[in-house]
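Page 37, continued from 36.
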């Protein structure tokens, strides 16, 4: 089992959760807080940030290469319409399943006030360093916001729709521009895609340590009760995915 990525990740999850629960029960106090804030929490946040760091280049390179690989823009129009219709249909079904199950099962019900406050504080600390792009309020604002006036700023703000639109436009430009320089630029994007995929595999190799650190932080601060909450939520997600 340890030879597979899934097995190592499961081992990291079990080790982090077990050690955190034991530390919460047998060694609470300033020493445990120091370990959490100076070791496990930074390690977990670095792991998450490494994953988030690679999202933008992966999405940009993958979409640009996918569009340029079509060759004929008329195919892009047909595929785009079919993809849009399929996405809207499946998204509507997914939202319906999610809302129904969450309102029926209520996986967060019964959480103690202290555990709820600790989980909220931990989520806030992890989200503080991430971009917080807010969705536009109206339909026209949403449509306008998809077209970025500054793609670099859109990437910095985590505006994925704008980044995807920019990547699609680059792919269209590569399809329309049949020059040697454009082909070299396309090869550079392909190189970016290859490098990003390689880095993702490296980060995934660190996943057992990152997962262990994240679970240790939660269980050390809250105790084993958080495992029951996570198990309940995980089963709900798996059930929703199976239905979908």
């Amino acid at each position: 089992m340890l030879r597979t990525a899934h097995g190592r990740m499961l081992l990291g999850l079990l080790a982090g959760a077990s050690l955190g629960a034991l530390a919460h029960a047998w060694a609470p106090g300033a020493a445990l807080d120091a370990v959490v804030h100076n070791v496990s929490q930074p390690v977990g946040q670095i792991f998450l940030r490494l994953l988030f760091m690679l999202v933008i280049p992966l999405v940009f390179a993958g979409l640009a290469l996918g569009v340029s690989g079509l060759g004929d823009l008329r195919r892009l129009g047909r595929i785009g319409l079919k993809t849009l219709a399929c996405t809207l249909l499946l998204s509507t079904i997914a939202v319906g399943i999610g809302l129904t199950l969450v309102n029926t099962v209520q996986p967060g019900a019964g959480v103690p006030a202290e555990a709820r406050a600790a989980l909220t504080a931990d989520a806030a600390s992890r989200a503080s360093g991430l971009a917080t792009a807010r969705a536009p309020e109206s339909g026209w604002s949403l449509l306008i916001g998809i077209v970025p006036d500054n793609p670099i700023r859109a990437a910095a703000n985590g505006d994925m729709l704008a980044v995807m639109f920019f990547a699609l436009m680059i792919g269209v430009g590569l399809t329309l521009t049949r020059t040697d320089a454009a082909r070299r630029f396309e090869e550079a994007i392909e190189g970016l895609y290859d490098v990003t995929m390689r880095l993702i595999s490296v980060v995934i190799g660190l996943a057992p340590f990152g997962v262990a650190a994240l679970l240790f932080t939660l269980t050390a601060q809250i105790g084993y009760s958080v495992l029951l909450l996570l198990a309940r939520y995980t089963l709900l997600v798996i059930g929703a995915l199976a239905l979908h």
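Residues 73-105 form the longest helix (33 residues). Flag for discussion at group meeting. Residues 40 and 213 are 5 Å apart (CA to CA).
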